[in-house]
Amino acid sequence: MDVSENVRTADVSAGKGPMRLRRRPHRAIEHAPLRQDTRTVPSPVRSKKVLLVDDDHDVRRILALALRRLAFQVDEATTGEEALSLLEGGTTADLVITDMVMPGKVQGTELVESLAANRPGMPVILMSGHFDGVRPSANSTALQLPKPVSLQTMAETVKSALDDW
């Protein structure tokens, strides 16, 4: 490499008086020819949409954030009634994740049963801190996910639900 003309650079030392300038040699940069990247870029995959239903704001926020980081589009509802209203109003979802116990008339199990009757085959994950033998109806294929849940376990369960679909 050749050393070309000197260039002024600032050498600032905090608390050591005024700024001093000193000359440092500038080295010429040899540019290598650009290589064209021959790797193939995969075509974009349609992001799956998840409807997340949980009355606990903090749980819903954390799960929604984790799902978004996994490249899912997330719609949120705080009650079973709100979830059904969103779906009836045209909101689409590839997967519904719902808490089992929520305020209102439509609990998680009723939401699961409604989805099984009106949208057969739609993957559903039912979350709860206490299943105590509660099972959705026989025509439901909902997966059960006990709370608290690690993000790793949630990601694996979501993948399993969508792979089976």
Number of domains: 1
Largest sheet: 5 strands, parallel
Task: Give the CATH topology.
Answer: Rossmann fold
Total count of strands? 7
Strand order of the largest sheet: 4-3-5-6-7
Distance from first to last alpha carbon: 61 Å
The radius of gyration is: 28 Å
Number of helices: 4
What is the mean predicted local confidence, pLDDT? 77
- Any low-confidence stretches, pLDDT <50, length ≥5? 1-15, 34-45
What would you say this structure looks like, in words?
The chain is 28% helix and 25% strand. With 165 residues, it is an alpha/beta fold. The protein has one domain: Rossmann fold. The strands form 2 sheets. A 5-stranded parallel sheet has the order 4-3-5-6-7, with helices on both faces. A two-stranded antiparallel sheet has the order 1-2. Strand 3, helix 1 and strand 4 (73-77) form a beta-alpha-beta unit. The N and C termini lie far apart (61 Å). 24% of the residues are buried.
